[in-house]
Every structure is written in C-alpha cells, then in structure tokens.
C-alpha cells in the first residue's frame, strides 16, 4: 500500500501510512490488498488511504467476533464490562480533542460542533457502563397446576453487525459499541466510506482500554460490498443500522437469510411548527439551527418549517437573515458555524434539490447556490438556504435533502398543521414553538414521530430514547430500550414439586 506524501501532518493519526482494519485484535490489510481514499470535504485533499474491506474480510471479522462471543467475553461479569466502558470513556476523554478534529477533517463538521459533542460522547459511554450492571430478568408468577418456578434471563444477542453513516462518526460508533460492550455482545462495525477515520482511531482506544481481541472489529469498505456482506452474513445475529431508508430496505432484505434481528435508524423529513404566539427571538435561531447544524446532514433535521400564516413572511425572512449571518467555511476554523457537505456526491445531490426547488416555483430567500469564491471552490460548500412559497406536494417538501435547506410553508390552524405535519412517510423528529401549553400538549401527542422537541430542537441525552416511526425505522437508541435491543429474553421453568 502506498504512503501519502504530505508536507506537514495535519493530525497525529494522519501519518501518511495507509490505515488498516481491526480484526481479532490485529491490524490487517484487506484480503484483496485494495485501499480507498478518504477526502477532506473542505479542501478536496486526500487525508488517508484506508484498507477496503469486502466480503472476505467481513467473513474473517465475523468469525473472530463469533469466537470471541463463544469465549470468556459473553460470560464476563457485569462489573468487568462496566469497568471496560469506564476505561474507554476515560481514554476518549483524554483524546477527545484529537477525535473531534478527526471527525471535522473527515466529514467537515465545524470543530465547535465536534468538540461540542464531548458531553454526549462521554455521557453515552458512562451511561452504558451504568447499564452493564443494571441488566436483569424477572421472576414471574405462573398459574400452572403443580409447582413451577418461572423467571427470565437476559442474554447478549450475539454477534452484532453495526453499519454507520458519516454524519457523526465518533458518536455513531459509540452508539453501536456502547450497548454491545454493556451487554456482552461482540461487534463487526462497518464505518461509512466517506468517514472511516474516527471509528478506526476509536478502535485503537478500545484495544488500549483492554477490549479483548475479536470483541470489537472494524472493517472499513463500501456499502454495496462490505456493508451488504455484513447485512447478509449468516454468522451475524443482529444488524444495527443507521443510514438512509433506501439502504434500510436493502438491509431488511439481506437480513432475511437467517432472520437476524434488525434495528434501523433511518432518515426523516421532520416538521418544525412555529405558532405566532412563540418566543420568536428564540424560534428564529432554533428553527434555523434545526436544519443548518451539521449543514443539514442530520437525520432528524427540521426541514419542513410550518409557520403560522400571520407571521409567515416576517419569520421566514428572519430565518433567512439568520442563515446569512452564519459563517460558512473550513470546519477546522474555530469561527466556522457551517462546514462543507461531506462529499462531491452529496454536493451534487443538494445542488440538484436547489434546482428542483426553483423549478417547482419555490422562492429562495437566502442561499440557493453552491459557494465557489476563493478556497471555497475546492470544497463542497452550500450556504444556509431558506425556500419560501413551498407547497406540501413539492419534492423539496417531501424528500430528504440532507443539506442546509429549509422549506418554509404557511399554515392557518392547529388541526390543519397536524394533518400536514404528519403527511410524510417519515417520522423521526419534530419541533414546535409556542407559549401555549395546551397547543404544545396537543401536538406532542398528535405528531407521529419518535421525538417531539418543544421550544428547542435536537435535544439528545444518553438516557432518553431516540428513534423513528414509519419509514424512519424501528428500534430505539439511547435509554434502557437501546440496551434491550442487544439482549435476548430466555424463559426458564423449574418444576419444583
Ligand atoms: P447515506 O446516504 O447517508 O450515505 P447510506 O444508507 O447510503 O446513507 O449509508 C449508510 C451506511 O450504509 C454506510 O456505511 C454505507 O456504506 C452503508 N451501505 C450503503 N449501501 C449498503 C448496502 N447495500 N448494504 C449494507 N450497507 C450499505
């Protein structure tokens, strides 16, 4: 594998050497010897070459994960798994700035954002550490004639295939390996091809923390090859997937061979509803960052902005002005508030939707075009965009864009906005802004989505479940429900008379 020549290293992990995959505690090249490049989306520069795993590597990794599962690991005491997670949390804390910078380099998010995920990343590891010692079955009274005792045991599901996206590599990796380590599962994780570096660095830290060989394996590669092989593998007991709904559908099909368990955290087209009685000074940046954060590359972004008609023009204009005030640039610049999109492909997709929006008759109040001035031309920059005059049937109001694009839509009354907010095949996030507690309660119950944020957006906590309704997927991440996704329930009967 060739080294990359760079005049000055930009990050300690980027030493010019190709990155290998972690299988059975060893850092290996791909069986095919192939590598792929991972690119800095702010500059178009190659950051590293990475081993390109395919079905053969997935086989090796699943075998290693099975051996590890059949070994002492799945019988490790809860305290051992807890202390491993706590050690990993301490290592992640010590190396946090380095990990955050790697996320920024590999997928573009502003450093203020990746560093800002500190509380959540560490909180997740420490939360799962707590969960490791809280797993328990139940003693259940039964009505059989004769004397029987009946109780349940919770057991780790087995080998987990984790397939993650690129929009938050560090937290996405922790979100998969945290519950696996808490429950005694083993994992084969396939990072997204756009951003494999942080998961690989985190795998090094897992080793340093003392995670036994084969318990966490990381196989970078493409979705159609490595990802598909993992989803279909008969040695995998559960797939934990985060990504697009189209890939989610393929995962379900691929999983059918051995009827493996599947949890899916998919896309969205989330409504964010602003009533005229809201604290508009808070709602303007709130509704703006519900979409502009991470350049809109968040599955629960509040992209359908429903605004009560009497404040529609003014509010949409204020959100557009707020968008214009945000600094777009290289994520490594601490002043940057909106970074580039992750890849040239994503840029094409988002600019394609900008064109579709105009053709459909939507009126751009801000943004609307790719930025190409100066250094921007090298990267994949799209500024915060607000489209006004959007109708519900437009593609920009129905399809997930995954870019910093708000579709602002007027509404007249609460019943109408409930119907229209729910008129989507997705159901991941939702927001509403009001000072009226009755309206807030009514919408919180009526909106068919996994999360409802009232007078805020995107609040997340390791203890609070997150996941989708409808085509946004099933299963929950975070919270006790997440740990259950990694456990089987076994019923035990004992005849005692
Ligand atoms: P996005 O559009 O956000 O990149 P994807 O669903 O394409 O979302 O990708 C999310 C993850 O799914 C990535 O790790 C990708 O490599 C993987 N992936 C893509 N296609 C497949 C597939 N057919 N089978 C399994 N994994 C896949």
UniProtKB/TrEMBL annotation:
Coiled-coil regions listed: none
Aldehyde dehydrogenase domain segment(s): 27-492
InterPro entries: Ald_DH/histidinol_DH, Ald_DH_C, Ald_DH_CS_CYS, Ald_DH_CS_GLU, Ald_DH_N, Aldehyde_DH_dom
Domain of life: Bacteria
Catalytic residue positions: 265
UniProt KW Signal keyword: no
PANTHER family, alphabetized: ALDEHYDE DEHYDROGENASE-RELATED
Family indicated by similarity: Belongs to the aldehyde dehydrogenase family.
The protein's name in its UniProt record: Aldehyde dehydrogenase family protein
Organism: Paracraurococcus lichenis
Lineage per the UniProt record: Bacteria, Pseudomonadati, Pseudomonadota, Alphaproteobacteria, Acetobacterales
């Amino acid at each position: 594998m060739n080294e990359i020549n760079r005049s000055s290293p930009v990050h300690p992990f980027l030493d010019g050497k190709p990155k290998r995959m972690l299988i059975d505690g060893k850092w290996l090249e791909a069986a095919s010897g192939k590598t792929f490049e991972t690119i800095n989306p702010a500059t178009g520069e190659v950051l590293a070459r990475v081993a390109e795993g395919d079905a053969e590597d997935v086989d090796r990794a699943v075998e290693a994960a099975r051996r590890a599962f059949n070994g002492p690991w799945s019988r490790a005491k809860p305290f051992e798994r807890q202390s491993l997670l706590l050690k990993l949390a301490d290592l992640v804390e010590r190396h946090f700035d380095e990990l955050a910078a790697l996320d920024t380099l590999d997928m573009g998010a502003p450093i203020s954002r990746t560093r800002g995920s500190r509380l959540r990343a560490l909180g997740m590891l420490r939360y799962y550490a707590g969960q490791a010692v809280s797993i328990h079955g139940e003693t259940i009274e039964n009505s059989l004639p004769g004397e029987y005792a009946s109780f349940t045991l919770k057991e780790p599901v087995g080998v987990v295939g984790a397939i993650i996206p690129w929009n938050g590599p560090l937290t996405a990796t922790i979100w998969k390996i945290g519950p696996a380590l808490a429950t005694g599962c083993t994992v084969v994780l396939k990072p997204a091809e756009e951003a494999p570096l942080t998961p690989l660095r985190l795998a090094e830290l897992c080793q340093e923390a003392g995670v036994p060989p084969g318990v966490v394996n990381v196989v970078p590669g493409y979705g159609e090859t490595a990802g598909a092989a993992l989803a279909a593998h008969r040695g995998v007991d559960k797939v934990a997937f985060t990504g697009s709904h189209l890939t989610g559908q393929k995962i379900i099909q691929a999983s059918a061979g051995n009827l493996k368990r599947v949890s899916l955290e998919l896309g969205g087209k989330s409504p964010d509803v602003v009533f005229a009685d809201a604290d508009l000074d808070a709602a303007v940046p709130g509704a703006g960052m519900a979409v502009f954060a991470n350049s809109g590359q968040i599955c629960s972004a509040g992209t359908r902005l429903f605004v009560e008609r009497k404040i529609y023009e003014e509010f949409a204009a204020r959100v557009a002005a707020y968008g214009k005030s945000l600094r777009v640039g290289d994520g490594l610049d601490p002043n940057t508030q909106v970074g580039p999109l992750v890849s040239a492909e994503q840029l094409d997709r988002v600019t394609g939707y900008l064109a579709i929006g105009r053709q459909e008759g939507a009126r751009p109040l801000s943004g609307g075009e790719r930025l190409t001035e100066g250094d921007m031309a090298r990267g994949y920059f799209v500024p915060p965009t607000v489209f006004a005059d959007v109708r519900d049937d437009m593609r920009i109001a129905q399809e997930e864009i995954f870019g910093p694009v708000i579709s602002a839509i007027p509404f007249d009354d609460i019943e109408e906005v409930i119907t229209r907010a729910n008129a989507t095949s997705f159901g991941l996030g939702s927001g509403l802004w009001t000072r009226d507690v009755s309206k807030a309660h009514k919408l919180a119950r009526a909106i068919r989505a996994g999360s409802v944020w009232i007078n805020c957006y995107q609040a997340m906590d390791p203890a609070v479940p997150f996941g989708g309704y409808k085509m946004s997927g099933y299963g929950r991440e975070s919270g006790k429900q997440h740990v259950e996704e990694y456990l089987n329930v076994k019923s035990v009967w004992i005849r005692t008379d």
